[in-house]
Batch of 2 targets.
Target 1
Amino acid sequence: MSQQSAFEYIRHGQIPFFRLPLANLAARGSEAYRGSDAVVLGVPYDGGTTYQPGARFGPYHVRRVSALIQGFDPALKLDPFQKLSVVDGGNIALPPFNDAAARELIHAEIAAVLESGAAPFLVGGDHSITLPALRAVEGRHGPIAVVHVDAHFDTSGPEVWGESHHHGTPFRHALENGLIERGQLHQVAIRVTWKNAAEREFSDAHGASVYGMDEIDARGIEGIARAIKQAIGDRPTYVSFDIDAVDPAFAPGTGTPVPGGLTSREALRLLRQLAGVHIVGMDVVEVAPALDHADATVNLAAHLLFTGLGLLAIRR
């Protein structure tokens, strides 16, 4: 299914992701997405942030700039919108102050996408949205492999804030609940200062592979991606990309920026080097447009999402 032409897009005045057609939102449950290979959904929730909020506005602004992206990807040598049927599924309507209700609604909507046979591609929203998405994906595919690109481990507990669910906790819950196959969490670009010397131990105890920035510098993006692909094999794989994995010099629009991260080029190359992996879903999270400069961050987020759709198209 092709993108709308630029004329069609301008004429109707709406702002769908990548100039895509809209899902049949008048239908209920999985019927809204029937016949699609991928559904791009906004998840405008940032009730799990612990520093600067604003990621709830990410979906609108990523939609806005994604209209500029043409269909053919010269790096992957395909047009995902010609090879796949992709629709904009709108936003998941969420209560901004009830995290438990938000998790249930996200889980239900992603489960509906998966039941239709499509793969979910999410634009957050803060990183707490990933846990219910992983629950839904695991419910469809069983324990999965996850490529988690982030400055932070996101394996915290309630010890700091007195709350067990926030944007620093999704991978603790995912590992503890068996949503991720043991040894199949691949954490890339980790570099934040730690609360203590033992912070990495939770990831290590669950067999996660952690690739910090020093190792990326030493081995290169291609070497890291090659190791991840070899470890994953043909397992169903979910990509969770926190935009703060990218250095704030390139992606300032995020609530918890950490110096010394990936360049925009490295971030895109990392995804492209995963070509051939069995992608079953993806999210791009923590884009906070009010903190952005000249749309640098939202443009990068749109291109990361586009590249993820290309990875799905390679396997179809």
Target 2
Amino acid sequence: MSARDVVGLALRALPRETDELNVQRALTYTKQAFWKFLSEEERAAVAPDVERVLRAGLDAAPTESRKAAWFATLRDIAQSRPVLEWLERVWRKTDSVQGLTLAEPDYIALALELTVREVPAWNEILSTQLTRIENPDRRARFAFVAPALSSDPGVREQFFESLGDVRNRRREPWVLEGLTYLHHPLRAAVSEKYIARSLAMLREIQQTGDLFFPKRWIDATLSGHRSPSAAVTVTRFLAEIPPDYPERLRRVVLSSADDLFRSSGTRRP
């Protein structure tokens, strides 16, 4: 099936589904298909229908847990100005989601998603959210990730360069969140240049990080990409690795790049 057909099927099924786990699974599939497999033009074409169904599902959800699932998906997919303006009002606490109580992590996620979309007040949203955060660990994590969301390419470059220092990779979940936003699909065209450099760092990542960090590092690096040129970068890297390159890392790259090869129509090496 084409990604557009998958999204269309999900939009028809979601309003009829009554099982909460099935709703959550369908929402996850919708988000994955939307960002990983639709082209930019296809996303723009289907976004109004996606937003309409998600907003209706949010309003109709009978429980707070279901509302949370619908809201999180809408927050992560939102494209149109009216929906983004509404989300900003929710973040500013001048509007609310009926039947859903938002906690500190929800406002943090809202601030990050609004910033990566470069809403007009993105810089103020980032700085204000930092002062709002009461939990010291969350505040430190937010400060670490924030440069990866900047609209200034130079600031994002500095963030990536900082990851070359092993001391800045100690908090691996922070690093992965920053990488995911650095490579967000909305920034994919300008972040593609980091793919080759991230692949080149993989051996060092294995030597200095957690057992599962290399896979997660490449997952985050490739998470927002679907272009043939990005796939070529990965294919070229695999073709040029030396004979003594660890087989486990080669398999890690192949596994992480699977969606990229599929979405770009590139033959798997």
